[in-house]
Write a structure and sequence with these properties.
Helix content is 65%, strand content 0%. By secondary structure, the protein is mainly α. It is elongated.
Length: 93
Protein backbone atom coordinates (compact mmCIF):
# COMPACT_ATOMS: atom_id res chain seq x y z
CA UNK A 1 0.00 0.00 0.00
CA UNK A 2 1.26 3.45 -0.81
CA UNK A 3 0.53 6.20 1.67
CA UNK A 4 1.31 9.85 1.05
CA UNK A 5 1.63 12.14 4.06
CA UNK A 6 2.08 15.89 4.16
CA UNK A 7 4.19 16.50 7.24
CA UNK A 8 5.73 19.68 8.61
CA UNK A 9 9.29 20.47 7.54
CA UNK A 10 10.58 20.14 11.13
CA UNK A 11 9.29 16.59 11.39
CA UNK A 12 10.72 15.70 7.99
CA UNK A 13 14.14 17.00 9.08
CA UNK A 14 13.91 15.05 12.32
CA UNK A 15 12.95 11.83 10.53
CA UNK A 16 15.71 12.29 7.97
CA UNK A 17 18.33 12.92 10.66
CA UNK A 18 17.30 9.91 12.74
CA UNK A 19 17.12 7.72 9.64
CA UNK A 20 20.66 8.70 8.63
CA UNK A 21 21.91 7.89 12.14
CA UNK A 22 20.59 4.35 11.65
CA UNK A 23 21.69 4.10 8.00
CA UNK A 24 18.07 3.84 6.86
CA UNK A 25 16.02 5.69 4.32
CA UNK A 26 13.56 8.20 5.73
CA UNK A 27 10.70 6.00 4.54
CA UNK A 28 12.13 2.89 6.20
CA UNK A 29 12.69 4.75 9.45
CA UNK A 30 9.15 6.19 9.43
CA UNK A 31 7.74 2.69 8.78
CA UNK A 32 9.83 1.31 11.66
CA UNK A 33 8.39 3.97 13.99
CA UNK A 34 4.84 3.14 12.92
CA UNK A 35 5.36 -0.59 13.41
CA UNK A 36 6.86 -0.04 16.87
CA UNK A 37 3.92 2.16 17.86
CA UNK A 38 1.35 -0.36 16.60
CA UNK A 39 3.12 -3.19 18.41
CA UNK A 40 3.15 -1.22 21.66
CA UNK A 41 -0.54 -0.42 21.36
CA UNK A 42 -1.41 -4.06 20.65
CA UNK A 43 0.52 -5.19 23.73
CA UNK A 44 -1.19 -2.54 25.84
CA UNK A 45 -4.58 -3.58 24.51
CA UNK A 46 -3.93 -7.23 25.34
CA UNK A 47 -2.79 -6.31 28.84
CA UNK A 48 -5.88 -4.16 29.39
CA UNK A 49 -8.09 -7.03 28.21
CA UNK A 50 -6.34 -9.43 30.60
CA UNK A 51 -6.71 -7.08 33.56
CA UNK A 52 -10.37 -6.50 32.70
CA UNK A 53 -10.98 -10.25 32.54
CA UNK A 54 -9.49 -10.57 36.03
CA UNK A 55 -11.78 -7.82 37.31
CA UNK A 56 -14.78 -9.47 35.64
CA UNK A 57 -14.10 -12.83 37.32
CA UNK A 58 -16.61 -14.32 39.70
CA UNK A 59 -16.91 -12.17 42.83
CA UNK A 60 -17.49 -15.23 45.04
CA UNK A 61 -14.21 -16.72 43.83
CA UNK A 62 -12.40 -13.49 44.66
CA UNK A 63 -13.95 -13.49 48.15
CA UNK A 64 -12.84 -17.08 48.71
CA UNK A 65 -9.33 -16.32 47.53
CA UNK A 66 -9.13 -13.26 49.77
CA UNK A 67 -10.35 -15.24 52.79
CA UNK A 68 -7.81 -17.98 52.09
CA UNK A 69 -4.95 -15.46 51.86
CA UNK A 70 -5.98 -13.78 55.11
CA UNK A 71 -6.15 -17.14 56.91
CA UNK A 72 -2.78 -18.17 55.50
CA UNK A 73 -1.12 -14.94 56.62
CA UNK A 74 -2.63 -15.22 60.11
CA UNK A 75 -1.55 -18.86 60.48
CA UNK A 76 2.02 -18.31 59.26
CA UNK A 77 3.10 -15.84 61.95
CA UNK A 78 5.56 -16.09 64.83
CA UNK A 79 3.11 -14.23 67.04
CA UNK A 80 -0.17 -15.64 68.36
CA UNK A 81 -1.78 -12.28 67.65
CA UNK A 82 -3.68 -12.42 64.33
CA UNK A 83 -2.67 -9.98 61.64
CA UNK A 84 -6.32 -9.68 60.54
CA UNK A 85 -8.53 -9.96 63.66
CA UNK A 86 -12.15 -10.76 62.85
CA UNK A 87 -13.48 -8.09 65.21
CA UNK A 88 -11.73 -5.42 63.12
CA UNK A 89 -12.98 -6.68 59.76
CA UNK A 90 -14.52 -3.77 57.89
CA UNK A 91 -12.85 -1.30 60.29
CA UNK A 92 -9.13 -1.55 59.58
CA UNK A 93 -9.09 -4.09 56.78
Amino acid sequence: MTLTLNIPVEIEKYLTQKAQEQSLSTEAYALQLLLERISTQEKSSKLIDLLQSWMDDDEDEQQETGAFLIRAMDEDRLSDRPLFPQDLKGVTW
